[in-house]
Amino acid sequence: MTRSFLGWPAFPAAAEREVGNRQLRENVRRATHTIRGKRAVLAAERPDWDALRDSAAAIKDQVLADLETQLLRAEEKVTAAGGTVHWARDAAEANRIVTELVRATGETEIVKVKSMLTEEIGLDAALEAAGINARETDLAATIVQLGDDLPSHVVVPALHRNRSEIRDIFVREMGRHGRPAPDGLTDDPAELAEAARLHLREKFLGAKVAVSGANFLVAETGTLVVVESEGNGRMCLTLADTLISVVGIEKTVPSWQDLEVFLQLLARNATGERMAPYTSTWTGTTDGDGPRTFHLVLVDNGRTRALADPTGRQALRCIRCGACMNTCPVYERTGGHAYGSVYPGPIGAILNPLLKGLDDPQTASLPYASTLCGACNEVCPVRIRFTDVLLDLRAQVADGGQHPVERAALGAVGGVMAHQAAWKAAVKTATTAGPLLPRRIKLPGALGGWTDSRTLPAIPKESFRGWWKRTQGDTK
């Protein structure tokens, strides 16, 4: 049974559990520090780095302001190039469309290019329920799948695993799903990569259907783009007879000229490389070259909800580089699983509530999974102001009644402050009783969560109004 984040606990409970895993903390710390160090060097090479970030943010905002037009333009171009476009309002509809497309081919095993959107919608589980085995081909995604695990990073899903753990997974699981790991396999990276290459090569050569995501959709020509480091994407995109690409509607860019900006940013910010080793593009179908049938499934699944949020819509600029995770002190200590989603770290703390809403304890807890240090703001290639969105979402949580006792208490205080006589009486009582109150108090029931982490501030012997009246005369 494919694992999922469904029913994951709220961030505080999940984080408390993950922080206790010393090996996980060490794995995450080592990996994130390595990646962010390489990123800093390569970003500094570009004197126009900040100008590129400004351009990328402006392009994304242009698309979001005119998204319907750009998507319809892309649909027209894909259709003209021999592809078929499908529209999915939510995860259930997207999964139904893809499942029916695969069933129509008669195949029961397919290969996949790593796609966060298919993980977001739970596609693997939906296919499994229909008797279809979907095999991941990205190295890190393969590790996660073989280990019956869940992704913890948007670029390196198995970032929380070290080499020894990966070797054990390969030895234990590869033989159950195809070609087994070589005898005497060690945890040497070259040996692990070769074992994965041999195991996956059988999948590539045998699969008739491939499912991909896309980093970008160029509306100008209906071209899709996948950026990757291993070549597995190229294999999936060219060898299968049927290609199904599942793409979020926000991945659209207007033109190839606009795409150039993002390709200069993505690899440097994501993995600390000047250029991604493989950038694959495809437009519809071509006789005698690549898949004979191409389907594009455009997925909403909460994106129009996020688009309607004046502050939060900037999260849809995200190009999934993962830099915000690599610099986040909270992510470094909890890892990705604590966020309960395929989107962890700072982007997960804002994107998940925007896509799903704040009426669930799990998503409502995520805006608080931050120190508000702003490190994520500084590294984002599309200028997302994470701290602004986090604060706005926290206000929405409070206004939405997620803490009814606190809201009632503040409402009572507001009522007293609105009446001058009542407020003066309350202030006088407080100044009189202040010296008698202990600095630490424990309130009963739900109020205990408030007092457990706070000390009572010292109450002055005289109020400001009292001091002003005594020193400056009467005041109203």
Write the layout of secondary structure elements.
Layout: H1 11-19, H2 22-44, H3 49-65, H4 67-80, E1 84-88, H5 91-105, E2 109-112, H6 116-121, H7 123-129, E3 133-136, H8 139-146, H9 163-173, H10 189-206, E4 209-212, E5 216-218, E6 223-228, H11 232-239, E7 242-248, E8 252-253, H12 256-271, E9 278-282, E10 293-299, H13 303-307, H14 323-327, H15 329-334, H16 345-356, H17 361-365, H18 375-379, H19 386-399, H20 404-417, H21 420-433, H22 448-451, H23 464-472
Parallel strand pairs: 1-10, 2-3, 2-4, 4-7, 5-8, 7-10
Antiparallel strand pairs: 5-6, 6-9
Helix pairs in contact: 2-12, 3-12, 9-10, 16-19
What would your notes on this structure say?
InterPro entries: 4Fe4S_Fe-S-bd, 4Fe4S_Fe_S_CS, FTHF_cligase-like_sf, Helical_ferredxn, LUD_dom, LutB/LldF, LutB_C, NagB/RpiA_transferase-like. It comes from Kitasatospora cheerisanensis KCTC 2395. GO terms for molecular function: 4 iron, 4 sulfur cluster binding; metal ion binding. The chain is of the alpha/beta class. It folds into two domains: 11-303, 3-Layer(aba) Sandwich (Rossmann fold); 405-472, no CATH class. 51% of the residues lie in helices and 10% in strands. The chain has 23 helices and ten strands. It has helices at residues 11-19, 22-44, 49-65, 67-80, 91-105, 116-121, 123-129, 139-146, 163-173, 189-206, 232-239, 256-271, 303-307, 323-327, 329-334, 345-356, 361-365, 375-379, 386-399, 404-417, 420-433, 448-451, 464-472; strands at 84-88, 109-112, 133-136, 209-212, 216-218, 223-228, 242-248, 252-253, 278-282, 293-299. It has a six-stranded parallel sheet with strand order 1-10-7-4-2-3, with helices on both faces. A four-stranded mixed sheet has the order 8-5-6-9. α2 (22-44) packs across α12, α9 packs parallel to α10 (189-206) and α16 crosses α19. The longest helix has 23 residues, at 22-44. The radius of gyration is 26 Å and the shape is elongated. The N and C termini lie far apart (71 Å).
